[in-house]
Target: Adenylosuccinate lyase
Amino acid sequence: MSTDRYISPLSERYASRQMQYIFSQDMKFRTWRKLWIALAETERELGLEITQEQIDELKSHQDDINYDVAKAREKEVRHDVMSHVYAYGVQCPKAKGIIHLGATSCYVGDNTDIIIMAEALKLVRKKLLNVIAKLADFADRYKALPTLAFTHFQPAQPTTVGKRASLWLQEFYMDLQDLEYVQDSLRLLGSKGTTGTQASFLELFEGDQEKVDRLDPMIAEKMGFPGCYPVSGQTYSRKVDTRVMNVLAGIAASAHKMSNDIRLLQHLKEVEEPFEKNQIGSSAMAYKRNPMRSERIASLARYVMADALNPAITSAAQWFERTLDDSANKRISIAEGFLAADGILDLCLNVVDGLVVYPKVIEKHLRSELPFMATENIMMDAVRAGGDRQELHERIRRLSMEAGRRVKEEGADNEMLKLIAEDEMFGLDGQALEAALDPSRYVGCSVHQVERYLDQVIRPLLSENREELGVTAQINV
Model:
């Protein structure tokens, strides 16, 4: 490991090997050569004087890239594409004259960027599906476990642990829908020339418009894409990058929301993220079990959400048919956005897979607040026994204030039910009041909602994508 220069923590600590390879130099330049082969093959099929021998020579050196030659050449000419055209030509002397024929640099640069983003989205989709699968298992396992719900982080009507997890699950499912829409809409730039007019190809094919029209679809098919964008400048619209990064930002927002909830629940000691046997929570406080992974999710998520501004600004700032102020920003923001999103999803997989629930603590917290929440049911029971609803409501209000005062000022237990039992207006005995404290009476349709959502939405999705499931995450630190 080099210790005398900056190394991105996205590579060293967070992103997986698979995602790092997708954005590697090897992936990039191998794709360039595939695109040059696809262009030459298509031009030959459309009648240009290119031989099969030349095509075969190009294919024979598709993957053994002579990086040393390209690097030395780039120092001379200061142009990465022409350096690699030269290096490829050194290996393919018979074909060197037809490499990159009619094309501009964006033919390899932009088409490769789209191909790389498409591959990266496939990996993101796979991991997102696995996060959804693990959350679905968790929601199903705890769908009937009552827990105190919160609005404004103040105690509110109970829900269940599984129902709360279904809220996280639904947001990730929405992200998957957005991802698939953008994924399905991706197209190649194709061969559009220096300003997008295809003038060089119209010249190559001696004014034959039909052949020019066939060029892009044939290249797209060879590269495994459904087509090319019908119009462009020299580059594909940078709006494409914006749409892709917005998908990643959406996933980051969902992960941030879930990780924040887990962090708060870990403070309450109701739920805990995985904590390994020899893990150290604090350098000073040896007893601490900090939610480090959930905090890391939130930290990386903020980066991805902010990073989504980069392609939006770049898209807005492109002048006419092309400017080059996109290049440096784009090669950083897109790659690092994907690497960070990949790290987030690995962390989500790890956290959800090992999430620990403490039912006794959950029950203790719930029962401390349940007497207040039981008052509406108690009031209805008293009304059925002949009481006046308005008078009972006022009496409960006063008793609630008194019980709350004792809890806050004296540190006493919640004695709301005791106060009600001692009040003759209610006419309820201790047994009836205790029955009112059954937590399952207060979770509404939580269990049904979880079951219905899993059965109608999530399980069909997972069944259709069963071959993508089974991913586990390796957390580096």
About this structure: The longest strand covers residues 154-160. Residues 282-288 have pLDDT under 50 and may be disordered. The CA atoms of residues 163 and 446 lie 6 Å apart. The beta strands are 146-151, 154-160, 271-272, 356-357.
